[in-house]
Specification:
single chain, 217 residues, alpha+beta, 5 helices, 21% strand, binds zinc ion
């Protein structure tokens, strides 16, 4: 509960101590969830019996390991002799270049929302939450996110430019150009320049360059 708010027990909730949690659920419930945070203990509860034969498993047989944000549970059942591996995420991609979906989406999501990767890994470490390594996330951003974003950007850029030309008046178009650095003062490294059609209010072009690159300095 936020500061200054008042706790008013409703008739239905009665002795429910998880008031703030249930509020959150109803508020965010509009969008279907794709991932869940599951506690180690709660996860291991699901591996009390062999999935193949139903025999009770010795907890020392159940081994939990991880690959980035993926949790992998292995056990060899003494009853039926089967080795079972369970993974918390599915793999995406083709052929040999498949990756765990969540590992990829975490890196791409951090990138497109502007979350600094070192802060993100600090956060995960504090929580004891499995995340891909910083190195792995940067590789995903470089090899997967950037090319995909560039491809989509190019398509939209071409679309906007042809639209601007189509509706342009005989006298030409009026453009406005605005530039801004990523942060104020000496820490600024990158400058983003946006060129807009002043009448249509659409961005015709955008560039982001390091301050030492010739077009900026
Ligand atoms: Zn079994």
């Amino acid at each position: 509960l936020s500061q200054g708010s008042e706790y008013v027990p409703s008739e239905e909730s009665g002795g429910d101590t998880e008031e703030s949690d249930s509020e959150e659920t109803s508020e965010n419930g509009k969008r279907e969830r794709k991932y869940r945070i599951v506690g180690n203990e709660q996860l291991l509860e699901l591996f009390r019996r062999c999935k193949e034969c139903g025999a009770q498993l010795d907890t020392s047989e159940v081994v939990m390991r991880e690959e980035g944000s993926v949790c992998i549970v292995d056990y060899a059942c003494l009853s039926c002799g089967k080795s079972v591996t369970w993974r918390s995420q599915s793999r995406i991609g083709k052929g040999k270049s498949t990756v765990y979906e969540g590992n990829q989406e975490i890196a791409v999501g951090a990138f497109i929302t502007g979350v600094p990767i070192p802060r993100f890994t600090d956060f995960a470490q504090l929580l004891g939450l499995g995340l891909p390594t910083e190195r792995a996330m940067r590789r995903t951003i470089r090899d997967i996110a950037c090319p995909a974003i560039k491809r989509v950007f190019k398509v939209w850029e071409a679309h906007v430019r042809s639209m601007v030309k189509d509706v342009a008046e005989p006298g030409g178009i009026a453009i406005s150009i605005d530039g801004q650095y990523d942060s104020p003062g000496f820490n600024a490294t990158n400058c983003k320049v946006t060129i807009m059609d002043a009448n249509l209010k659409v961005a015709i072009a955008g560039v982001s360059l390091h301050k030492h690159e010739p077009e900026i300095g």
